[in-house]
Amino acid sequence: MLSPIVVQMALWHCGCMPQPDLLLLLCLALTLLGILVTAVAWRRGNRGRVLQGIGLTLAPAGLYLSGLLGLLWNGVTAVGNWARALTMSQTVWLGLSLLGVCLVLWVVGGIVARRSPRKAKKRAVTGSSSPSPSGVTAGAATTTAGSGSGTAPGKAAARQPAPADDDLAEIEALLKSRGID
């Protein structure tokens, strides 16, 4: 059974993995950079960012000590070797084009997914905007029906639907506090 040290020595000797000093220097540089970013966040008083900075500062040391930094290094060099040896044939262009289409569809799908629930929520809060067969919208029908039940018609008409978003509620509260309706 080979010890991990013998395996690492064999990998370093064949050139598949950089010397441990290079990875250690890279780890130290990333850790120092993380300490600087964390110190800037500390001076600004952002405690949440300080905690995130400490976590990211510890990440390079954890990667180095677990051996994952060497694995990451091998992945980066493999991609570099692939790109260096790549010949742009029609099949490669087709594959890269398909990857581009996948990326565009992913981004557009995310945008559509973000916008769709908002419209459905806004319709649910404000009532249906499509007219009913009698020509009166659903919101107006409920207001008219509610006005005969002992409430004054002016009060029923003055009621506005609740804002669909917290940001809109804040803006509305700010406008009301300044006397703007």
Write a structural description.
- This protein has helices at residues 4-14, 20-44, 47-66, 68-85, 90-126, 138-147, 153-158, 166-177.
- The chain is mainly alpha-helical.
- α2 runs antiparallel to α3 (47-66).
Structure keywords:
single chain; 181 residues; mainly alpha
Give Rg in angstroms: 31 Å
Low-pLDDT stretches are 132-149
Mean pLDDT: 75
Q: Could you give a short account of the major beta sheet? A: none
Structural class: mainly alpha
**So how many helices?**
8
The 3D shape can be described as flat
Strand residue content: under 5%
Q: What's a quick, concise take on this entry?
A:
This protein has helices at 4-14, 20-44, 47-66, 68-85, 90-126, 138-147, 153-158, 166-177.
